[in-house]
Write a structure and sequence with these properties.
Elements: H1 24-40, E1 66-71, E2 77-79, E3 82-84, H2 87-99, E4 105-110, H3 116-129, E5 134-136
Parallel strand pairs: 1-4, 4-5
Antiparallel strand pairs: 1-2, 2-3
């Protein structure tokens, strides 16, 4: 802030009106409004609601059936170490898995060098056909 000091010659004359606006009250009002706005903003909740089971689950009656799908570095798909020649036969096998009442676990094991679009295609086909128990295996090779 600056101070307007008159010259000694004009000491006897009437003081001139101040031409500057006092900004201090405006700044105080703005600070109070900002604090009120900050107080009234709701707290951000970054959580995902999950339906977790209650209690301990019963022990499994039998070992689950596991089907392994390997995707080789060149995009070749292997179903339990048997080469799948084309996309339609893979989808036929996935349809058979999805049709079972107690679906077997499908373990998808991609090679480190394979293109992502091949692995994403296999996962999308499994999801589209209704396979619910699918998981990626061998993730330690990507670290």
């Amino acid at each position: 802030m600056s101070m307007n000091v008159g010259s000694p010659a004009s000491a006897g004359a009437d003081p001139e009106p101040m031409m500057e606006m006092n900004m201090t009250p405006l700044i105080d009002v703005m600070l109070v409004l900002i604090i009120m706005m900050i107080i009234t903003i709701p707290k951000a909740n970054h959580s995902v609601n999950l339906n977790m089971p209650v209690g301990t689950p019963p022990p499994p009656v039998k070992e689950p059936v596991v089907i392994t799908i390997d995707v080789d570095f060149d995009g070749t798909v292997l179903w339990d170490n048997v080469v799948i020649p084309d996309r339609s036969s893979l989808e036929a096998k996935l349809t058979d898995v999805a049709a079972q009442a107690d679906q077997p676990e499908v373990h998808l094991r991609p090679n480190k060098l394979v293109s992502y679009k091949v692995v994403a295609g296999v996962m999308a086909a499994a999801q589209r056909l209704g396979v619910t128990k699918i998981g990626l295996v061998g993730n330690e090779q990507f670290q």
